[in-house]
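Saturday, quiet lab. Running sequence design on the structure tokens for the scaffold JK sent over.
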């Protein structure tokens, strides 16, 4: 499924999204946490979604098909200071209305940097999407930047936070650089399309 990925379209408004059937996953998270890198890694294609060292790379909803009836949506990062406020508000509105109205949405994937998870914007987004009926998967990326002990500490911190707030999220740790954890995350995401 993830091996046959290609770019379909870039959307600045919901009306230009592909027809609302089949299944979709959307990837959310602060700027620069590696949302686009994760999509590339899951699909085994380095240049599928554009990535950048400079935050604010992804500026609209980029849609990738993975097979005939499944799609991945790469979203702009939230909380990046250098993007003008009006633009950030547009992005937020677009993402929120996507999450609230998209019938074919199978799960929301929230990507965080394992070195500093649960930043204020992460907490806000977790709170707003965890009330929906849609499964939420929290992915802690950049495992390669921490030693084992610190990775574990960060995972436990997020686990504890979500339990405390009654967010029924699934937690995964990955590194888009080393490939750690990517196979098992891919398998889990596949299952979400089938359920
Ligand atoms: N060390 C390390 N760097 C990573 C990893 N994943 C992504 N990066 C780097 O992080 C930077 C940002 O990656 P992107 O995938 O563009 O991040 P994004 O979340 O899509 O960013 P926006 O589109 O700006 O919201 C790039 O320089 C990537 O090479 C990882 O697992 N480990
Ligand atoms: Mg991006």
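Result came back. Writing it out in full:
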């Amino acid at each position: 499924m993830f091996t046959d990925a290609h770019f379909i379209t870039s959307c600045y408004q919901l009306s230009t999204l592909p027809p609302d059937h089949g299944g979709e996953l959307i990837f959310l998270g602060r700027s620069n946490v590696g949302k686009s890198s994760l999509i590339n890694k899951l699909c085994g294609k380095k240049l599928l979604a554009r990535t950048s060292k400079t935050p604010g790379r992804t500026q609209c909803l980029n849609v990738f098909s993975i097979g005939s009836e499944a799609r991945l949506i790469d979203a702009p990062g939230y909380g990046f200071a250098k993007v003008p406020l009006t633009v950030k508000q547009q992005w937020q509105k677009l993402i929120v209305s996507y999450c609230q109205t998209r019938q074919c949405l199978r799960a929301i994937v929230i990507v965080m940097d394992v070195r500093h998870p649960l930043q204020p914007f992460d907490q806000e987004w977790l709170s707003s999407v965890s009330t929906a009926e849609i499964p939420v998967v929290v992915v802690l990326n950049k495992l390669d930047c921490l030693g084992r002990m610190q990775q574990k500490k960060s995972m436990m911190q997020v686990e504890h936070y979500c339990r405390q707030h009654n967010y029924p999220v699934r937690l995964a740790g990955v590194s888009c650089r080393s490939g750690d954890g990517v196979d098992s995350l891919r398998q889990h995401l596949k299952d979400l399309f089938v359920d």
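Notes for JK: Residues 5-194 form a domain with the Rossmann fold fold (CATH 3.40.50.300). The chain is about 35% helix and 25% strand. Ask whether to fix the surface positions before the next round.
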